[in-house]
Request: fold
Amino acid sequence: MIAIIDYQMANLRSVEKAFLKVGGRAVVTSDKNKIMKAKRLVLPGVGAFGYGMRELQKGGFVRIIKDAVAEGKPFFGVCLGMQLLFEKSDEAPGVKGLGLLKGDVKRFSPRLKLKVPHMGWNQITPDGSYVYFVHSYYCAPKDKSIITATTYYGINFASMIKKGNIYGCQFHPEKSQDAGLKIVENFVRL
Reply:
């Protein structure tokens, strides 16, 4: 079973539908026992970094997530869920992230003179697929080798990462049609 962690910060049903569409046994849950027993975990997210961390702490999910990752369970962070994997964010000074990955989450600079949030379809490289983004902040991993795809929006930023059993994407695979469903399917088949 795949546990989609319900910490009050995501469009959970659309994420669940994407997993079900590709044949994944997925359940949206805030039940700690179900989450601990799951074979894979998904942390989706829409919203602010500081609020997201508060909700993870309030729900008692931080230790469960860290233990699951340490046990080697495949873990997939989506959008805010990917950002929360890092140490800190410009969006919430003083708030510590999960710290499972070294690096920061940075705001797109106003000097780039781009619309923020970065919203809509954009390309990931090296694959060339178009996926759907909605974000004002991007992850800046210290270890560049964990970046598996980048996207250009005034700068090249990490749009997908992988380190061991940790996977993440800044875009919304559940809204990214065939390309997104393929990513979800690949996670199901790990």
